[in-house]
Amino acid sequence: MEPVDGNAIAGPLFEHFGSEMTAVAGSCAHCGKRSQIAELVVYTKAPGRVVRCPNCGNIVLVLVQIRGTLRVDVTAFRMAQAQT
């Protein structure tokens, strides 16, 4: 299965968060690698979309449809706070 970059989940993330998310930066909870969502590695041929860290390969996000509702687990991707 060939992975794609984080731009492949732009639509579902926009649907869930209500804004463009691919430029959002965060760090992997496993190795600490800082990346933008667009730089993450996405596997789309699963029951949902599995998103992995480009550095260590651990899962950092999971997107899945449950009874027609998008569920997003971002617990392993620590999103950076917006600077004001």
Biggest sheet descriptor: 5 strands, antiparallel
- Report strand order across the widest sheet: 1-4-5-6-7
Oligomer: single chain
Average of the residue pLDDT scores:
93
Query: What class do helices, strands and sheet pairing give?
Result: mainly beta
What gap, in angstroms, lies between the N and C termini? 41 Å
Helix share bin = under 10%
Instruction: Please tell me how large the radius of gyration is.
Output: 12 Å
Question: How many structural domains in the coordinates?
Answer: 1
Number of helices: 1
Strand runs, count: 8
Written as H for each helix and E for each strand, in order along the chain, the element string is: EHEEEEEEE
Topology:
Elements: E1 4-5, H1 10-17, E2 25-28, E3 34-36, E4 41-43, E5 49-52, E6 59-66, E7 69-73, E8 77-79
Antiparallel strand pairs: 1-4, 2-3, 2-8, 4-5, 5-6, 6-7
Structural write-up:
- It is a single chain.
- This protein has 84 residues and is mainly beta.
- The chain is built from 1 helix and 8 strands, in the order E-H-E-E-E-E-E-E-E.
- The strands form 2 sheets. It has a 5-stranded antiparallel beta sheet, with helices on one face. Strands 3-2-8 form a 3-stranded antiparallel beta sheet, with no helix packed on it.
- A hairpin with a 2-residue loop joins strand 6 and strand 7.
- The mean pLDDT is 93.
